[in-house]
Amino acid sequence: MNKIKYLLIVLVAVFIYSCQEDFDNPPAPLTYNNVGPVITDGTDTIPTILVKSNEDMAWDTLAWNAAVLYEDQGLITHYAVQIDEQGNNFASMFEIEASTTSSTEIIILVGNLNTVLLANGYSPVETYDLELRIRASVHDELETVYSAVVSFTVTTYKDIAVPDELFLFGDATTVAWGADTSLAMYKDGGKFIKFTYLENNKKFRFLKAQDLEDNTYNYGSLITLSDNVDEAGDDDNNFLFTGTTGWYKIEADYLTSTLTIAEHTVGSVTYTYDYDNLYLVGDYNSTDGFWDADNADAFTKVSEGLFSIEKVLKDTAVFKFIGQLSWGDLDWGNIGGDGNSGILGPKESGSGNITFDGEDKTFNIIVNIKEGTYTFEEVPTLPTSLFMIGDGVGDWDWGNTDLPMIPVNSHPNLFWKVVWINATGGFKFAPEKDWGEDFGVSVDLGGGEYTIGGDNVSVPGTAGYYMVVVDLEANKISIADPDVYLMGNTIGSWDTANPAGKFTVDNANDVLTITKDLAADELRMYAWHPYFTDWWQSEFIILSNVIEFRGTGNDQERVNITAGSNTVELNFKTGAGSITLN
After folding, report:
1. Which of 62, 219, 397, 492 could form a disulfide with 42 if both were Cys (CB 3.0 to 4.6 A apart)?
2. Does residue 16 carry a pLDDT above 80?
3. Residue 137, SS3 per DSSP
4. What value does the mean pLDDT take over residues 289-311?
5. Taking a C-beta distance cutoff of 8 angstroms, is the pair 53, 104 a contact?
6. Please, what is the Cα angle at 408 between 388 and 526, to 5 degrees?
7. How far apart, in whole angstroms, are the C-alpha atoms of residue 156 and residue 175?
8. Per the domain annotation, does 449 fall within a domain?
9. What is the CATH number of the domain that holds 576?
10. Of 200, 232, 263, which closes a domain?
11. Where in the sequence is the domain holding 21, given as residue range(s)?
């Protein structure tokens, strides 16, 4: 009925127009030879694989000759592109593009075509035989005409956003389920690459940040998977690695929605994670950094796949890691070319040299082939000397107070001193007798222990001898009662901290003393503290009535005593010592 209504309107309009023009002539026949649009360009018959990286590019530009609809009536023709599966006679068709003007050309973008196909029930990463036609109409209530049908074939893609970063974790990896320690992958366009260890029949997934806020990139995020990957079937929708435990190249491509996990082979060598040797080669410092593979410096193997080496690194240091003392197939560098990403790349993987500005500082270079990482840990430059200053131990004038601490042998981080501390005041430490790098304490840990900081060390409150120990590695300072002992054949014992050989603190006479029957032998003494590991590392002797400390030196000259009752006195204020046969 509505179509009749609109047709009558058209007829009336034509009739009035005709009468106004010539009342003597009858109107023209009321017939309309409507003709559908004719496609003149577009729709290549070659099957097309839609790719997300091309989503903003044209899939096709359709052009057609205009349709003829109610010619000369001033009505606007509207066009739309209709699509359905081949052979369905457009029974389930949908429109991908529509025009509200009389334009006879439409550009169909790859992304728009893919989006509309997925929205209409088509699956990602599937190939479909489709057909399209151009619909032309002036109004839904009037006749619609169509172009000829054109067939085409496309393969859809998984439309998921390519993340800025991607991280790997799970119990199939070395980092287990620690999201904060998940392994960074190298981004190459829409593809993410990682060379790392995977364990058989264990799970993993990807994160776009090192937290658990968004787990979008799990099993459902990729369509085409390697034969050695399956669905874990758990609540987190993890991947399950079903391959043999080993070292693999992992490629997660979010443009093609493909996950590939395969061994990496160079020449006759298939890369693994467990090697006996690793070497550093390159131009990394002024003394031993050269591109001489035959004489490269060896790393220390810490554990399976984990190596470390301590080196001074200059600015513009350039180097690589090799698995043999030659230029062979085992070769690791920075993935993706020269740089310092921290992500390891083996030979023939697009890797380059590792570059690093070390400022001539010492670093521990750690290479974890199992995880596919390399890192740099700066080794603090420890002072070779340490001095005490302050009114708690003397005064604040470097010209008056000379209190060098004693380095602990084989432990460059430790210094000790048996020192007289006043009842009031405070003190600090410095690597030289000057201000600038001085330090004190920060947090009181209790029991005479403090963390190193900028505040003065407060005296205990009672004047007397105290044992002061500084641990620059543990960042701690200890103030305790002095524990000084005899050691060796003179007391018939080589046990550390043997009470039978302990000195008595005699603050009234400013000495530490012991009177005891001793055997004729070398008199050996040492100061002890819980921070220490071996008694000889804090050893000292009395030589010519002066206390001589071993410090960082070798065995000292020996002083033999006469058997019998002997009294040994140590004055740490003056540095004097005495041995008296009673």
Report:
1. 62
2. no
3. strand
4. 94
5. no
6. 100
7. 35
8. yes
9. 2.60.40.3610
10. 263
11. 1-31
- Which range, of 8-22, 261-275, 446-460, 482-496, averages the lowest pLDDT? 8-22
pLDDT band at 5 (very low <50, low <70, confident <90, very high): very low
CB contact burial 532-558 (16+ within 10 A = b; e otherwise) = beebebbbbbbeeeebbbbbeeeebee
Query: Quick check: 307 and 295 in contact, CB under 8 A?
Result: no
Q: pTM, whole model, 2 decimals?
A: 0.64
The pair of structure tokens assigned to 334 is 């920075």
Give the CA angle between residues 511, 512, 514 to the nearest 5°: 125
Q: Token pair of 157, please?
A: 């893609």
pLDDT reported for residue 12: 36
Average pLDDT over residues 349-358: 96
Average pLDDT, the chain: 91
Q: Is residue 572 part of a domain?
A: yes
Return the CATH number at 436.
Answer: 2.60.40.3620
177 residue type, one letter:
W
Instruction: Tell me 112's DSSP state.
Output: H
Looking at the structure, tell me whether residues 45 and 151 fall in a common domain.
yes
**How many whole angstroms separate alpha carbon 419 and alpha carbon 430?**
16
CA distance 279 to 274: 14
Q: Residue 296: CB partners within 8 Å, gap ≥ 6?
A: 279, 280, 281, 322, 325
pLDDT of residue 2: 38
Report the candidate in 40, 34, 63 with the shortest Cα–Cα distance to residue 144: 34
Cα–Cα dist 387/430, whole Å: 5
* Residues 38-65: tens digit of each pLDDT: 999 887 668 888 888 788 999 988 899 9
Q: Which residues contact 549 (CB under 8 A, 6 or more apart)?
A: 406, 539, 540
pLDDT at position 101: 60
In a domain, 441, yes or no: yes
Q: How many domains does the chain have?
A: 6
Give domain status of residue 290, yes or no: yes
